[in-house]
């Protein structure tokens, strides 16, 4: 009997799954053990004490609820704006003709090589002159603007394979540019739109640099949790709780978006087979 040539896939995936899940188990165990036991190794069973003191400490010592609301607001608004504006820009670059179209596209795409740290100082001076420090718009504008470098590129690559016959048929039926976009292109482009939403939400949810510099009263979760590590006490148990809390909501968002992403892939009636 001929041996299956792909026999190694299942063992390899199993090993990778174990490698991925062991740190997760470690973080969960650290969140319910005191710091003195964690210092000996979270896997140590010489002395095992389960406690929820770290969970209570996170909620009582830090403005967790305010930070959670702030993170959700920032990530949701930036994701919604990116998912709305990216298809419009990509559609214009792909199907419309206007002056300096290619030049503008090259400028946007070249922002790939522009590190975020390069724009921090001029951006800080600009927001300070405009009185926008400690304003949520001071982080939303860079989040949406900087995401154009990859989101427009991703969306435009998808539209390059979009059937031109559907666009021409819409024009014959009397549809203008906006009607073609909303009735023909967008319903068949849900997959890249939700993929962009997933990436944008995860980036803005976990971002630390911009909120740390520009926000004071509406600090999101990464900023609050960056203050957990003490000078002398690393607070491993509390930091483990912070990692769990920070991870739960993006995981749920990913699951929801993933379902929409799969639905969009199955309903893509206009793409090439």
From TrEMBL:
Under CDD domains, the record lists: TM_PBP2
One Gene Ontology biological process: transmembrane transport
CC terms in the record's Gene Ontology section: plasma membrane
Q: How does it assemble?
A: The complex is composed of two ATP-binding proteins (UgpC), two transmembrane proteins (UgpA and UgpE) and a solute-binding protein (UgpB).
Q: Where is the ABC transmembrane type-1 domain?
A: 68-257
Where's it found, cell-wise? Cell inner membrane; Cell membrane
Q: What does this protein do?
A: Part of the ABC transporter complex UgpBAEC involved in sn-glycerol-3-phosphate (G3P) import. Probably responsible for the translocation of the substrate across the membrane.
Q: How does it sit in the membrane?
A: Multi-pass membrane protein
- Protein name per UniProt: sn-glycerol-3-phosphate transport system permease protein UgpE
Q: Which residues cross the membrane?
A: 7-32, 74-93, 105-124, 136-155, 176-203, 236-257
Which species? Trinickia terrae
Q: Which family does it belong to?
A: Belongs to the binding-protein-dependent transport system permease family.
Superkingdom: Bacteria
Q: Does the keyword Nucleus apply?
A: no
- Which key words tag this protein in UniProt? Cell inner membrane, Cell membrane, Membrane, Transmembrane, Transmembrane helix, Transport
